[in-house]
What we know:
The mean pLDDT is 79. This protein has helices spanning 2-12, 16-49, 54-102, 107-111, 114-156, 158-205, 207-213, 216-268, 274-284, 294-315, 372-379, 402-406, 423-427, 436-445, 449-453, 472-486, 502-516, 528-531, 551-555, 560-572, and strands spanning 334-343, 346-356, 361-365, 387-392, 395-396, 409-413, 490-494, 520-524, 536-541, 544-549. It is built from 20 helices and ten strands. The protein is of the alpha/beta class. α2 packs antiparallel against α3. It is elongated and about 120 Å long.
Amino acid sequence: MFQTVKRIIRWCGEFRGKLYIGFVFSFFSTWFAAMPIMVAAYTVGLLIQGRLERKWVGLSLLVIALLVLLRFLFSYLQARFQEAISYELVARDRLAIGEALKRVSLGYFQQVDTGNILNSITTGLHTLENMGIRMVDSFIGGYLNFLCILLCLLAVSPLAALISLAGTALSFLFLLLVSRHSAVNAPVSAQAGRDLTAATLEYARGLPVVKSFGQGGASMAAMRQAIRDSRDICLKIEWGFIPANCLHLLALKIASVALAGAACWLALTGTLELPMMLMICFFSFGIFAGLEPISDSAHVLSVINNAMDQLDALRENHFIDQDGRDIPLERFDIAFRHVEFGYDARTVLKDVSFTIPQNTSTAIVGPSGSGKTTICSLIARFYDVTSGSVTVGGHDVREFTCDSLLKHISMVFQNVYLFHDTIRANICFGRPDATEEEMIAAAKKARCHDFIMSLPDGYDTVVGEGGGSLSGGEKQRVSIARAILKDAPIIILDEATASIDPENEHLIQAALSELTRGKTIITIAHRLATIQNADQILVVDDGRIVQRGTHRELATQPGRYRSFVETRQRAEGWNIA
């Protein structure tokens, strides 16, 4: 518990001053909550002894009212200083994790389930946001306030102080049991939550396939299991939490009764004056009020500790560009030198070497799984090579930061992703500072201005997640407009026209011509019309460059490319008999 409290205080960073001031206000708030009891006990004592003066009745009511107002004032000040801290910190951490995820290798997302990442950023940080500061205040404030009341009791009655201390010590032993139980089960609970998030995402993403195959029951199996596991671990934690929590509360209640009994006995023996006896009796009902909720703190602190472990694991991943720097480029040629690369144990590229001169077009062809997309991913440094080197403008891509490298590269993919935002925001994604005129000019070059203007809100039309409210051709043209507006000197086209219908193909080709004019072009394609005019063609097979040359040169040589051309000609020339 103490380690987690220290960890949360360290997490507060520059807000620790506010946190400590909040503790002070919390302390005074508790004291001003206790002082009316003292005034009331003193007044009742005077009344019983027959020494109560009329003027004291009004004065005591006024003092109690003032103390109540002061209590709420300090409670308000505590909330003002402390409540905003977690929201500030969690917002900062979410942005930091977003920046960190942007800088890790894409291989990280193959090793770590998306549900785990989502659960850590949402559930983990949500726990910190809502419970972190409150649990620390409850833990520290509860014991700090008890210590002060204990000193007061010690001055009035050492026996009463000893009883209070004994009850608190016994309850603390049971709190350690709560903490130990929570520490064991918190990671299991967190994993169950991550599994549930992952299963829910998988179910939602797979619904089109589920519906098309009529397998609703089968698709729910994993989600049902995840829900059952989450329920079972929550119940297990609860059943394990209840006995120790009840013993903790029982120890405090017994101490309260013993405290009241001791005060009465001391008064009967003449050791304690009546007002002091009444004060201790009144206090016995509330002296442990700040300690009772600490059982919840002990449990939640273990959950928070586990959540912080998950977040640290996200933040501490090896940044692919942690040694990189911003390098200005004067030329934009690309070279692979004896590159080898693989995903985990599977080798994909084997001793790949080639050069792409500046302002030329290079087409990469080959069968599925041969390594074409991997080559493009290495140019953009989505991954680092296993051995060899990839250079852009004469510099190894490992010398760059991701941002400084990618500002020179625009990519258009076969599967276009548009953000759930306006078309304007999607086109300007690569250049947020672009003017309205520049954005419209890019859209016109991409042949998408006309269909955008026909939409209800034009460029301010919000597209669905992934661009789902647009057709495939429309999404493709918006993505090309995005790339045109960025105006990067290197263009990578990964099957950009593979799934486009014939009606849209000429528009896409015209848009690509605008995009690639005067650039260094790398194209992955299967359509002959797309690749036959390239300055060079690289034929990839089983992770190796098996042929290179122009279309005319390769089409006359026996080998993989000529076989590819003949297959494509047959496929593109088919007709219905």
